[in-house]
Amino acid sequence: MAVPAPDPRHVRLASVEEMRRLGLPQPPPQFPLVWEPGDEVELRPTAEIEARAAILHVVLARCFGMPAQAAMSWLLGSHLVDQVTRRSGSSSWAGEATTARSCCTTTPCTRWPGSSDSPSTSTPSSPPTTG
């Protein structure tokens, strides 16, 4: 169900005021609005939001050293592979997007238990959970 988006001018004024309060640089006066007055917005279904969050969780875990095989296994086991977006210009995401290393350098930020460059030998069955 589509609903009217808030007036972008009011959102801009509130955002600029908050930036001023925080001492951050402000956008130039000609900076475009993200949406136009009168535009409508529609929320995605809850299941789609949850799936996107789970996929982003795996992407983040890969950035911190989760092995590619563990990431792919988790995505396959969770039936989320078909919802992973292909990398632009790629004919296949299997070796690229799902490794999710594109969000950081080739060296993991930290070590993931079970990765080939970790002293640990245990392999996680799923990404870490939050509370």
General description of the model:
By secondary structure, the chain is mainly α. The chain folds into two domains: 3-41, no CATH class; 46-103, no CATH class. 33% of the residues lie in helices and 3% in strands. It contains three helices and two strands, in the order βαβαα. Strands 1-2 form a two-stranded antiparallel ribbon. Helix 2 runs antiparallel to helix 3 (68-77). The longest helix is centred in the middle third of the chain and has 18 residues, at 46-63. It is elongated and about 50 Å long. Residues 87-109 have a biased composition (Polar residues). Residues 115-124 have a biased composition (Low complexity). Residues 87-131 are annotated as: Disordered. InterPro entries: DUF4272. It holds the Pfam family DUF4272.
Short note summarizing the structure:
The chain is mainly alpha-helical. It has 3 helices and 2 strands. The protein has helices at residues 8-22, 46-63, 68-77; strands at 3-4, 40-41.
